[in-house]
Design a protein that fits this description.
This protein has a two-stranded antiparallel ribbon. A hairpin with a 2-residue loop joins strand 1 and strand 2. It has a domain of about 80 residues. By secondary structure, the protein is mainly alpha-helical. Helix 1 packs antiparallel against helix 2. The chain is about 35% helix and about 5% strand.
């Protein structure tokens, strides 16, 4: 007795391959957008992990050390002293950074007010290219030359070759054209 179905689901020559199963309609995927509360939750979880690591650091570095600062003397555990030094270092960066951010916000607010007072006709569109911008389809031969330094002159900011300039200029940072270099 022979069966007409091949063993193991193999396709015999001359027989049509079974087609893929019928496709079901694609389900709509909902995209969950990030929220401030979600970001706060992630930040608080990371903060808790950092605090736990700091706790381990302080507990493992409990040796007392003498701290002297501007005439004040005291004894602190090593971990606490290092942690305080790190916090003060962070404050040295954060305080000026906060001042700079505030300064930039005031400048941006001033520019927004000036743009809104000028009206839409005078304000440049955000997608407009600056007047001195090179068009995107320009070839290098169409673009302005990058180096406009005359032949033989030292470009500004460049270190002149040995023997360039006068002996009086040696060690002063002045270039052959007399301009001081920064």
């Amino acid at each position: 007795m022979t069966s007409s179905a091949p063993a193991g689901g193999e396709v015999q020559p001359g027989q049509a391959a079974p087609g893929p199963p019928p496709q079901q309609p694609a389900l709509r995927h909902h995209v969950v957008r990030r929220t401030r509360v979600g970001g706060l939750w992630v930040a608080s979880a990371l903060f808790a992990v950092v605090l736990l690591l700091l706790l381990f650091f302080i507990l493992q570095n409990g040796n007392k050390v003498e701290i002297s600062y501007m005439g004040a003397h005291g004894h602190l555990p090593l971990g606490v002293a290092l942690l305080l030094a790190a916090v003060f270092g962070i404050l040295l960066v954060v305080i000026p950074g906060t001042g700079r951010i505030a300064q930039l916000r005031v400048t941006a607010r001033r520019h927004r007010r000036a743009d809104s007072a000028a009206g839409p006709a005078e304000a440049a569109p955000a997608d407009a290219a600056p007047a001195d911008a090179t068009p995107a389809d320009a070839t290098p031969s169409d673009a302005a030359p990058v180096d406009a330094t005359p032949a033989g002159a030292t470009p500004p900011g460049a270190i002149p070759a040995a023997g360039a300039g006068t002996p009086a200029d040696a060690g002063t940072g002045a270039s052959a054209d007399g301009a001081a270099q920064a």
